[in-house]
Amino acid sequence: MAHVKAPYFVSQRFVWALLSCLGIVLHTVTRDNIHAALSCMVNHDIQNLTSVNSDVDRGRNITYVCGGHVEYNVTRDFDWDEETVRQLLSVYLYGQLLTQIPASWLALRYSARLMWASGMAIGSLCTLLTPVSARTHVYLLLAVRFILGLSGGLTFPCVTTMQGKWCTPNERTKLASIVFAGTSVGSIYIFSTTGLLCEDIGWAAIFYFTGIFSFLWVFVWIFMTADTPVNHKWISDWERLYIDTNIGKVNLTKVQSVPWRKMLKSGPVWAIVIAHCCDSYVTYTILNLVPLYTSENLGFHIMQHGPLLGLPFVCMTVMCIAVGHLADTIRERGHLTTKTVRRSTQMFASLGTSVTLSLVGHVTCESRGVAFVLLCLMGMCIGFNRAGFMVNHLDLAPRLSGILFSISATFGTVPWMVTTYVAEALMPNRSQAEWRNVFYVCSSVSVFGAVLFGILADGDLQEWFRSREVFQDYGDRHELAGSVGRRVRNNFFSNPDENTVLVESET
């Protein structure tokens, strides 16, 4: 019996994770940069919760901060009303809703790698066209944002489908944590650069920079990656054999049908869906309402304190990667089961976020430094969920992880749409006491998600995934690793407790 091990940091699967992370960074920026850009695009005070522009005096570039004021040298070009801004922010989500589940189904049958590249190329073009479409007519901008949403809906279904082919069971969390760290890195970029680009170059530069880098990423992605290790041009023979040894069913079986009904009856699947919905509600609050709260009540505005507002996302990124590596080490050494690791990390993430977010609402302008300590702690807590529900799809059904993620992400899009309306209903006067109610509701949502995930979540392959109705079995097959022939025998169906392939040397 041969025991195959391949290096991690100097491997093609590590390169794949880094490029996937960069792709998600660019996806996040193209999706969310308009939220920040509105603060230097719209020429008057928009008194709603969908814009970070609400502390700018009507017709002037002056922001009041804790009794004082700061003047910015920014030209704002548009007089859009509140409803127009609301439509600009929500139309992306409608496009994304339409493509996520179809994209995951297509990614099973065609090249997920090329599908994602195509979506990113379309998104890059839409991002580059954003300034000219905004200056032409707002309806044209709405159309561009809708198409951007359609293309953006391909990202997570495709990358999670590829995770099932590249992430071995004992490296599943740490590779996924690198990939999903792209969401927080994208937020760091948005908060750190928006103010500088607006003041020094102009708001259009926010979109031009992102669009150009996204196009460059598409070419690098196509050139440097492959759908599976077997098809990769530069992967070493030992690494290919190592991946096939651990997830050999990728090459020996193919998905014949998707058990939609059985999936939707599965408690662990609904644990992921509920956790995703609750996380989306919290994420929208952090990305959009917390910056608005800090600008109105604490005097921190993205135009002046952008890098400081990005600090919680730095903490989130560091903790995300660290916890991912720690979780896999604990699982590999047998200290805790996968189910225990997923439940404990997710519950810590949700409960820690709930506590810190509740406390943020009590911070006043006189002690505003405490707010950023709490926000950084909250970012660290959220980093734990990358080892929780965000990777749990791979535990339940590796080959169907894209399908499972698209289902949870589709449900998770709805909270992004309703968060603003809930906040508006809770704070008609926008006093600090009303802000606390907004954070209390958000904290309660987080606790709700933690409790249900702790009850329903699982960490093992599901019976409906092992079914021969799902897979077409090709039986034994030979694979080459260098000059030595290897017989790979799949025990996927015969041994329900193992998720590996036995590798025998031929002499």
UniProtKB/TrEMBL annotation:
It holds the Pfam family MFS_1. It comes from the Eukaryota. InterPro entries: MFS, MFS_dom, MFS_Na/Anion_cotransporter, MFS_trans_sf. Residues 1-31 form the signal peptide. Residues 16-461 form the Major facilitator superfamily (MFS) profile domain. Coiled coil: none annotated. The chain crosses the membrane at residues 114-132, 138-163, 175-197, 203-224, 269-287, 307-327, 347-364, 370-388, 400-418, 438-457. GO terms for biological process: monoatomic anion transport. GO terms for cellular component: membrane. Keywords: Membrane, Signal, Symport, Transmembrane, Transmembrane helix, Transport. Gene3D superfamilies: MFS general substrate transporter like domains (1.20.1250.20). One of its GO terms (molecular function) is symporter activity. It is found in: Membrane. It is a multi-pass membrane protein. This is Sialin-like isoform X2. The lineage of its organism: Eukaryota, Metazoa, Spiralia, Lophotrochozoa, Mollusca.
